[in-house]
């Protein structure tokens, strides 16, 4: 391929490339792959914590895109690919190949909007863990039991031998502290994924 043909392909919109794909031009799939591979890999790896699985799922998305090129109703290719990788990750998790914690995370991811594409899940969790680490001991303990072990206020109250009002106050104190330490969107997404 000469330089001008390569430049022309490079300047094509995703949707124009998809139309070329519909016309059975394999080079269009290669160009779409080069544009979106890394982003989709990061999305999958951020949930799966397994680079090899993430690579396999991304490959599955592009094989599926090729196989469905004549039947898919694609409006915005980047959104279509994002939904496809989320679906592949959820399917992988539903097949029981990962721990229950990751399944809960993936189920919540499907309801998130495009915010997850802007944030790296591992960085988000690290920020949250650093903020939680500096909470006062009792506050941290109550927050952990509530958010990570999913205990009710009454169960926490019984386990720690404190009143339910104290449990509620400690959780409120933790959330107020975390809001002060984390940017609003980071906290919102962090709470969504807990």
UniProtKB/TrEMBL annotation:
SUPFAM superfamilies documented for this protein: Sigma2 domain of RNA polymerase sigma factors, Sigma3 and sigma4 domains of RNA polymerase sigma factors
Keyword set, alphabetical order: Sigma factor, Transcription, Transcription regulation
Positions of the RNA polymerase sigma factor 70 region 4 type domain: 126-178
Domain of life: Bacteria
Domain RNA polymerase sigma-70 region positions: 33-95
Gene3D superfamilies, alphabetized: 1.10.1740.10, Winged helix-like DNA-binding domain superfamily/Winged helix DNA-binding domain (1.10.10.10)
Signal peptide: none
One matching Pfam family: Sigma70_r2
Protein family according to the UniProt entry: Belongs to the sigma-70 factor family. ECF subfamily.
Record-given protein name: RNA polymerase sigma-70 factor
Native source species: Chryseolinea lacunae
């Amino acid at each position: 391929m000469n330089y001008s043909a390569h430049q022309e392909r490079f300047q094509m919109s995703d949707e124009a490339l998809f139309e070329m794909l519909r016309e059975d031009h394999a080079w269009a799939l290669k160009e779409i792959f080069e544009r979106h591979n890394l982003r989709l890999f990061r999305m999958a790896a951020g949930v799966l914590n397994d680079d090899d699985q993430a690579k396999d799922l991304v490959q599955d998305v592009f094989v599926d895109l090729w196989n469905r090129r004549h039947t898919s109703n694609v409006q915005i290719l980047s959104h279509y690919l994002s939904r496809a990788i989320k679906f592949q990750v959820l399917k992988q998790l539903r097949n029981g190949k990962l721990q229950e914690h990751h399944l809960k995370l993936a189920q919540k991811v499907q309801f998130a909007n495009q915010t997850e594409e802007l944030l790296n899940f591992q960085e988000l969790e690290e920020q949250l863990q650093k903020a939680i680490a500096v909470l006062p001991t009792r506050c941290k303990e109550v927050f952990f039991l509530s958010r990570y072990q999913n205990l009710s206020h009454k169960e926490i109250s019984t386990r720690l031998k404190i009143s339910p009002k104290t449990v509620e106050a400690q959780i409120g104190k933790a959330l107020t502290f975390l809001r002060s330490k984390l940017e609003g969107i980071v906290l919102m997404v962090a709470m969504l994924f807990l």
